[in-house]
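Structure ticket #2291
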Amino acid sequence: MATEIDSKQYVAEQGTLQIGPFELSSRLIVGSGRYENATIMKECLELSGAQCITVAVRRERLHDAEGENLLDFIDSDKYVLLPNTAGCYSADDAVRVARMGREILRALGNPGADWVKLECLGDSKTLLPDPVATLDATQKLVNDGFHVLCYTSDDPVTARRLKAAGAAAVMPAGSPIGSGQGILNPNNIRIILEYLKDEDPDYPVIVDAGVGTASDVAQAMELGVDGVLLNTAIAHARDPHIMAQAMMHATLAGRQAFLAGRIPKRLYATASSPEAGMVATHPYPRGK
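Resolution: structure written out below.
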């Protein structure tokens, strides 16, 4: 008797993403910046299926280029907000902005008040992280009671030091922020996963930055990372609404492919049809 397959059950079995005390049903985290307007942003957040939304905390206190308060378009009862320190170039600036974000979200009663996506950049051209300043800021924020999600390079040694400093999650870049180049060095991501998960298999590693399209997300998830954080790939797509849906499906497909386990790559073909019971044939054509 055939057993009915429950596709929703298989989706649920991908598991939730646990970062410190936060449990997320979606492994896709999306940003709220760089959209044409706040209305499109709101619609894309919904279509992405994300539960966690990053918001850049600056002096303008979460207002976009048109002067609209982004929080008027993000349901803080539906989404867990993740304040980030985008645009900070020193540990002191990053710590100050993180504390500002905590006060804003505490006033809203949003559970995201106690965590932060730490960005501490080295220069404005590459937007690559400053590893020394990032480590310094991580230590200060952890001591201040934050659950710190660290944006970092794909250097395994730096990733290991950030985890040792108390980071709740390490987020290596696939490629430079907003570049759309995808995962440039999958081997380094694999080494980071090996280093950080040897002692704690549940420690979260999240690819952050450089994603350009859905196949990049699927590739990252197939490597075994726990989630993907992206923004520009949706916001600047020709059709952000369709891309938001594509990213949702790619995250799920990549996670399921990782859990399923891919077949090994081989140099030569392997017949997919069974050879047992086949009619014997001469190995060479007649006359040869």
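Closing remark: The domain at 16-260 is CATH 3.20.20.70 (TIM Barrel).
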